[in-house]
Amino acid sequence: xxxxxxxxxxxxxxxxxxxxxxxxxxxxxxxxxxxxxxxxxxxxxxxxxxxxxxxxxxxxxxxxxxxxxxxxxxxxxxxxxxxxxxxxxxxxxxxxxxxxxxxxxxxxxxxxxxxxxxxxxxxxxxxxxxxxxxxxxxxxxxxxxxxxxxxxxxxxxxxxxxxxxxxxxxxxxxxxxxxxxxxxxxxxxxxxxxxxxxxxxxxxxxxxxxxxxxxxxxxxxxxxxxxxxxxxxxxxxxxxxxxxxxxxxxxxxxxxxxxxxxxxxxxxxxxxxxxxxxxxxxxxxxxxxxxxxxxxxxxxxxxxxxxxxxxxxxxxxxxxxxxxxxxxxxxxxxxxxxxxxxxxxxxxxxxxxxxxxxxxxxxxxxxxxx
Length: 370
What we know:
By secondary structure, this protein is mainly beta. It has one helix spanning 3-17, and strands spanning 45-57, 62-71, 76-85, 96-98, 109-116, 123-134, 146-157, 160-163, 170-184, 202-216, 223-235, 240-250, 267-268, 282-288, 293-304, 307-318, 323-326, 334-340, 343-348, 351-358, 368-369.
């Protein structure tokens, strides 16, 4: 750490110590019944307000500032303090700051980064906020009633330059800035409390949909082939549903599309709302179009009576795809479409690998294989 950075951190400490105690807002708002306020998970639009910005600049190119952060959707308020050294033109990992109020039990936290945006040289702030939301009585599975949620936004803010009696005599002020963002709610959690059911795994393949298009375009690029493969995979052992959705394009002449999805291509079934990733199973598929053989690979962990158990399960099945090709007359470009009937079926696990690791303080115990 440079001397300039140490000096700046010292200035931040002085500013924080001098804050008015009344500014330390509660991390959550009482709903009148003594419970933490949790908004509905259906509320996806939020406003973040930056209030009462006050900053001081110093001769060592350091800008020290503080403000109050308010989030409408969670009713969360916290003081925030930070610094910027020089006029950085990129996101600075060392420039990420956690705001004062944090409540891990209530899932509440906020942080920000304040930088100079490239080209325009606007002041640019990036805010991250986490909280809990309520899916409501329609959610019948207790572990999924209360969900983690997150809100991220980044936008320009416009600071007024003012004269101050500190630092190099230059400061910044802003009464208020309103930022908007969208709330993200994660995927419903799998069941991770019973390992017995994982010894006998059978997946459900729901609405398996495969279709392909061939287009003859020009002599230079005669054939453009596009294939779609999508379905939902459900595992009753861990009560987990994940979407598998894939798109491929290639230059393959009709009617051959076997090489587009081949036996050596291992693809991940992954939804954007699987966060944090370690809370969810990992799922891969291999679809050999030449034989219509679908292979599923899935891994997940349980916490059973103080012992962590990991499962790696593999299963495969040849799907009875029935397809029809259609080529409209006089179409330009020349197009042929292949549609296959949707399939609902099951795949039984061929192999289950189980690995248990007793939890211990300090050093981790060696895994036990079975």
